[in-house]
Amino acid sequence: MAGLDSKAHQAQDSFAADHQALDPSHGSHSGQKSKGSSVLESELNNSLDQSLGKASSAQKSSSQSKSSSQSKSSSDDHDHAPVTNGQSTHISLEGLEPVKSFNSSQVAKVKTAEDLVNQVGGDLGDLLNPGGGKNTVTSARRNDVVFGDGGGFNTITTGEGKDAIVLGKETTNRIFDFDPTRDKFILSSGLKMEDIFITQGKNPGKGGLNQPTDSENNALIIDKNGGHILGALTFTKAAALSANNFAQIDDSSIVDFVKNDAGFASANGLTTRQGNGQINGTTQDDKLVGGAGDDFLYLGDDSFSVTPVKATSGANEFPFKNDSPGTTDLKAELKAGVLRIDGTYRNFDGAPLFSQGETVIDPKATILNGSDPVALINGFLKVPQDVEGNKISGTHLHFSPSGDDRGNFADATVVRYLTNTPTDAKSGTVTGEFELTPEEQAAFLAGNLYTNLHTNVDTDGDGKAGFPTGENRVNFNKNDIQFDT
Question: How many other β-carbons are positioned within 10 Å of the β-carbon of residue 385?
């Protein structure tokens, strides 16, 4: 499988490098960048986070439409230069406000293995135990239990179903698709609800998949005894969490039994697969067990499909309105760790950005959000290729969901560059083939990637010259990832 070959292993940061703190008492975080992860760039400084209802001071002064998912910023220079962001595992509680708090009497108690299974509706799908290290875990449609208590850093996509993540001390779990309406956390390793601090992150930094753990887009579950971040729920409101999202285990032997007892696995129809590196699941119910190193527990290529996606331009385009009637249609396939994207764009008012080697914005270009044209183009040119060597183009793959029930988000960080091939002055094709790291695969399966297509040069002479800041955004959101039974 290409998803975790030697290249991907080299791309992963060591957990030791990530196990640093924002709190000075834990040391300073080095912010090392994973070679195979997203190209780190500065954020869309003023992109709105409608899902959380938060805005920077610049955004607060800009006009917003409350009746639409559309939002815009007063300025955006699309500066794609690398920045330093990283996933920290600790945080100082100073200055953070608790959004929610519960005590042990308010949450369900797990006293037996049967109680644990009942936390996912009594119909157990997969058991996923990545162990220690820096791991990636993906699951599918069934009701799954993920053991996020092995002492490492886990990136998790739960898929569909009623899923539970077991939290343990000194373990950080970044969950890409936590659903407060059906998913939950089970406290283990002596954790009590009284130990838990639930808040919204405050860090405005972006960085694609390497956004800070304490991003303002994330709900945080923190162990008050030491400030360890137990859970970072990307693109989630802390206010949406309730006591129903938590359960508590008083006896850690229950967890050990469910993890290790062969009879329990057999009785629940689970096929056990254990190893190191990439461990593939099936469309049946599995028990996947990793080792002490960095592992990828993967749901399997046959467990999902991707529906074709389409975007239209116009005044309601997110995050920037535009004046083009253009449309983009894309298909995507993820197999053996390789993401293939192909499709077409039609009826645009300008040729794709950089398709003719331009290094300036066309003087006729319509820039509807007030950006400085020189800063805009210089921001693009700071990243001439992505991590796989794909050359700069006007079509990018980015990290952030939009167009589903989580709301709309924007992050200028380029994950990959796609190739534009014009077929005439207003139309063309879009293609891309990328070897994704495990974390990037998890992000795609969570519906957290999107593409956008910029145009610029007025090849048809209509005086509009495209929309370099009014991007045509095509979302591969969670509605487009279909998990199979």
Answer: 13
Per residue in 156-167, pLDDT (tens digit) is 999 999 999 999
Measured CA to CA, the distance from residue 462 to residue 457 in angstroms comes to: 11
C-alpha 311/C-alpha 452 separation (Å) is: 9
* pLDDT score at 188: 94
Instruction: Classify residue 282 by burial, with Cβ atoms within 10 Å: 0-12, 13-18, 19+.
Output: middle
Closest CA to 333 of 304, 311, 300: 304
CA–CA dist 251, 255 (Å, integer)? 8
Q: Is 255 strand, coil or helix?
A: helix
Task: Give the model confidence (pLDDT) of 276-307 as tens digits.
Answer: 999 999 888 999 999 999 999 999 999 999 99
Helix, strand, coil shares, percent, the chain, to 5: 15, 30, 55
Measure the CA–CA gap between 320 and 473, rounded to whole angstroms. 10
Interval 341-355: pLDDT, tens: 999 999 988 888 998
**β-bridge pairing 246-249 and 184-187:** parallel
The span from the CA of 1 to the CA of 95, in Å, is 45
